[in-house]
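Lecture notes, part 5. Sequence design as translation. It can be helpful to think of inverse folding as translation between two languages: the language of shapes and the language of residues. The source text, in structure tokens, appears below.
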């Protein structure tokens, strides 16, 4: 069975699951993208547009993410994108710890199928699972080797830069650092300048 087939089967199981109270008022938004990708981007939770379309990162933050991916020679089809919480919290509030805990097994299952080499947590909620003792302010734009196979490369959430213009250049810089790291690791081909 291909990774795409495994992810589709997992998505079907997830959509039938009833273990998170957010499901009462929101649509399920499972991960989306290339299951064979060595890179997985993880956000915190879907927003309104994601809730409507059932696909992660399709609103304003998603358009900015597409731009940032393009800046390092990647497209959405080259990566896998998902969230910690799989349903939109009311009014786009921050996800509660119990909601993250309830949805975490699904994220772990996605990662166990994809087996990425690089996990890119976008923002503090995604980072907290992987590196709970470090803040996004101290971690962003740096590689943290977890074991021989996996590196965590935290980056500010694109939505944060949309709300706080001062973060935009930092986010662009983080993506340049990510691109350089991916090239050095042999995951991305060096780009002609």
């Amino acid at each position: 069975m291909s990774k795409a087939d495994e992810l589709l089967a997992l998505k079907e199981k997830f959509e039938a699951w009833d273990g998170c109270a957010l499901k009462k008022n929101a649509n399920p938004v499972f991960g989306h993208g290339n299951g064979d990708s060595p890179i997985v981007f993880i956000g915190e939770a879907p927003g309104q547009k994601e809730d409507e379309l059932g696909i992660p990162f399709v609103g304003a933050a998603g358009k900015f993410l597409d731009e940032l991916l393009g800046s390092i020679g990647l497209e959405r089809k080259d990566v896998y994108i998902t969230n910690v919480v799989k349903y939109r919290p009311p009014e786009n509030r921050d996800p509660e710890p119990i909601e993250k805990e309830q949805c975490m097994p699904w994220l772990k299952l996605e990662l166990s199928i994809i087996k990425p080499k690089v996990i890119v947590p976008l923002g503090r909620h995604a980072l907290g699972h992987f590196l709970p003792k470090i803040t996004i302010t101290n971690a962003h734009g740096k590689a943290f080797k977890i074991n021989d196979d996996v590196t965590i490369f935290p980056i500010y959430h694109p939505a944060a830069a949309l709300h706080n213009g001062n973060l935009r250049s930092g986010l662009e810089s983080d993506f340049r650092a990510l691109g350089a790291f991916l090239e050095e690791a042999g995951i991305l081909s060096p780009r002609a300048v």
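The translated text above is only one of many valid answers, since several sequences can fold into similar shapes. The mean pLDDT is 94.
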